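dumping this here so i dont lose it
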């Protein structure tokens, strides 16, 4: 990733300089915003636990535009914060047989261009940066109602209830500059276990997915400080309608809370309590290709990022006897 820094109202970009170091715990939600924006599909992702024939490979390339604002602890001097991002997302997934159950492994790599501005102590500040974010790796398995099937066997499968689980690991490999408070990478590991329950009712499918995200400490936050974060708890739900043509439409929602941060032992007043909603439309093109359109927006935000996102993704699949 290459960071680009430019002038704003006569002030060079210092990404909220060290003179506001004591505000680190309150500022952190800016850095944490990027995974949610970049990985919109991860935050509101219908059909994550749908059964799929084993041996299939999926290659995905997508684009997401997001814009919005960051909400901070009212006691800080940070105001009028706005941002927009352009993100390219590259992903690979493969369906697997795990002890006779349908499973999947996927990896996601985002590349983001971020531009944001705000006021600190009533002085204008701007940050412009482009580069790779932290990659994410996930393994999921459906341990009830979703046997591992070949393409031929799958032709006779009909979903009823599926219960599955996944573990997502985010690695600290994205762009990170310890002199900046806004970064595309977070310089720490995170682990997200999730439970998925899916119920088919004719052409409709109902899904609910509770999860918790746990973080290791960033020991080089803002020029050597130690940053810790409490777990972030979330639950997302989806109502999906499948058309005879293979097209489907998803109505999506997510609620998450927690994530309070601590810098050098000092707790921040920045517990996140946010609600988002969105739509996803999947359009089959042919046997191997499909296109997905999606949009999401915030309903309520306490501390963190409140943004609207629009995206499109192309998917190519092969293998499994296709």
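and the seq i came up w/
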């Amino acid at each position: 990733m290459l960071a680009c820094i430019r002038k704003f109202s006569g002030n060079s970009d210092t990404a909220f300089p060290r003179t506001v170091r004591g505000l680190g715990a309150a500022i952190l939600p800016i850095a944490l915003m990027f995974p949610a924006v970049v990985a919109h599909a991860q935050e509101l992702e219908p059909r994550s636990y749908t059964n799929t024939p084993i041996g299939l490979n999926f290659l995905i390339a997508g684009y997401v535009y997001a814009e919005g604002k960051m909400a901070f602890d009212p006691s800080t001097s940070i105001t009028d914060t706005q941002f927009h991002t352009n993100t390219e997302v590259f992903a690979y997934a493969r369906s697997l047989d795990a002890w006779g159950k349908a499973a999947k492994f996927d990896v996601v790599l985002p590349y983001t261009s971020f531009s944001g501005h705000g006021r600190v102590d009533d002085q204008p500040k701007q940050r412009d940066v482009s580069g790779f974010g932290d990659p994410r790796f996930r393994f999921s398995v459906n341990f009830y109602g979703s046997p591992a099937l070949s393409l031929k066997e799958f032709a006779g499968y009909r979903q009823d209830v599926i219960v599955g689980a996944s573990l997502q690991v985010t690695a600290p490999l994205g762009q990170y500059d310890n002199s900046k408070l806004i970064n595309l990478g977070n310089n720490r590991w995170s682990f997200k276990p999730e439970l998925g329950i899916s119920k088919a009712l004719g052409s409709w499918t109902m899904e609910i997915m509770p999860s918790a995200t746990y973080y290791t400490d960033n020991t080089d936050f803002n020029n050597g400080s130690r940053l810790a974060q409490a777990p972030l708890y979330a639950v997302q739900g989806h109502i999906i309608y499948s058309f005879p043509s293979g097209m489907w439409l998803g109505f999506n929602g997510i609620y998450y809370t927690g994530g309070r941060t601590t810098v050098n032992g000092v707790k921040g007043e920045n517990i996140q309590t946010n609600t988002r909603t969105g739509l996803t439309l999947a359009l089959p093109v042919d046997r191997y290709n499909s296109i997905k359109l999606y949009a999401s927006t915030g309903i309520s935000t306490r501390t963190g990022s409140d943004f609207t996102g629009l995206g499109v993704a192309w998917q190519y699949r092969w293998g499994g006897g296709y």
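The chain is about 5% helix and 60% strand.
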